[in-house]
Amino acid sequence: MNNKKLIFTSLLTVVFRLNESEKEIGYEVAKSEAKVLEIENTKITGISHNTTKNNVSTKIKNKSNKILKNISINYVELDENQNKISTKQVPVEISLKRDEKALIKIIPQNYTYTIDIIGYSYETEDYNVNVDLNENTANIEKLSNLEEKQKELEDMLKYDILEIYDFKGIDDTSYKVKIKNNSQKNLGNIIKVAEKNSDGEYISVSNISNNSTLKAKDFSALMLNSTDKENTLEIIGYTYDDIENKSNIDIDLKTNTASIVRN
Q1: Half-sphere exposure of residue 142, counting CA atoms within 13 Å on the CB side?
Q2: Which of 3, 169, 177, 237 has the most crowded Cβ, counting Cβ within 10 A?
Q3: By the 8 A CB rule, do 248 and 201 touch?
Q4: Where does residue 31 rank: exposed (0-12), middle (13-18), buried (19+ CB within 10 A)?
């Protein structure tokens, strides 16, 4: 059995972001700099004649040197006569480092014959970027300087409060991992687990929650499962509610950041 099937990262650098962060809007960037996603197939057709239409998918790859987070894929659904049925967006649930790939699953409507990917959006450390593939253009929203907000926090690392350790393989697809609450607060938390196939593509993200609140300084064991013995699991982050400060904390272990949203 491969004991390295479950991967997690412990190093964390925290970035404080309010849900009402000010932005500079309308800054345009060169398309060569902004078009960083390689999309395997931007047009999927013949869907309504396909008996496996519920499994429509394509693949994306990060070609940039930056870590991309909050990725969303924009697409339109067309019927057999190429009339537009709807315009939709599908979020990508995982941040991608350079050359990392993810499988994008799209659920079409009953009469959808063609799915045409028309653009995408993503966020880097400093910018929100929207790419329009039809117009071959890109726009960027530059996030405001957050240094003053960061200084308001006495200890940024206090948000990384869950210790994830001691994972063990039970069989080819089942694993157990322990989590410890290192804080002084009782927490309700969700662990985010990504699954990779044998081609190194992220194929899914699962949210695994405790059955009960994790008390301060206490630990709990969670069961994790992959869908195939050849696949690997990776813990990519976790979320929890800070009731005392009326906020939700989202820890992203891919980007080594924490997002704090005030309720």
Answers
A1: 7
A2: 237
A3: no
A4: middle
- CA–CA distance, 191 with 239 (Å, rounded to integer): 7
Q: Which residues are CB-contacts of 212 (< 8 A; sequence separation ≥ 6)?
A: none
Dihedral sign, Cα of residue 129, residue 133, residue 138, residue 141: negative
Q: What is the pLDDT of residues 205-246, one digit of tens each?
A: 999 987 788 899 999 999 999 999 999 999 999 998 877 777
What does pLDDT average to over the chain? 82
Global pTM value: 0.82
pLDDT tens, position by position, 148-186: 444 334 344 678 889 998 878 889 999 899 999 998 888
- 205 vs 195: CA distance, rounded Å: 6
Burial class (CB in 10 A: 0-12, 13-18, 19+), 62: buried
